[in-house]
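S.,

Sequence below, as promised.
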Amino acid sequence: MWSARRGFLILLAAGLVAGCTVRPLYAPDAAGRSVQEELRAIEVEMPTTRPEQVFRNALLFGLQDGETVPPQYRLEYTLALNSSSVGIEAVTGVPTAYQLSGRLQYRLFDISTGQQVLGAVLNTVASYDRSSQAFAKLRAERDAEDRVADTLAGILKTRLASYLARN
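The prediction came back faster than expected:
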């Protein structure tokens, strides 16, 4: 009886593993199509703010690696940043630490059909300390903006690659 049960479990496990379709993300599929080639074919809309420019630059670097091809997809996005105090000095009551929240809403369109094929909202946060020096305060805030933009670009690149690998 024990060997029959063991045999059944082995067959069951083999059946489950056979259903897996795991392959390396950047490996070409059976038709020779590569996710990296499709990522290069994404046209990213122009930014209107400095944080959007940092986001776009990081995303383009991750998608295209310096190479461009005729676009097949168009990416539209909205990046919103919100800063809130998270630490207050006990004596003066002045905020000393801030948390910068970034919210990215994106939509990917197929250029040939004009249809939206993917869209979602991504969120991330970065913290920074407030200094009494104006330049240090500004630099810390900009560094936090850059970290938020870079993080969102990395998350979005992974989402886009995952979508293109499946479709």
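The first strand starts at residue 42 and ends at 44.

Coffee later?
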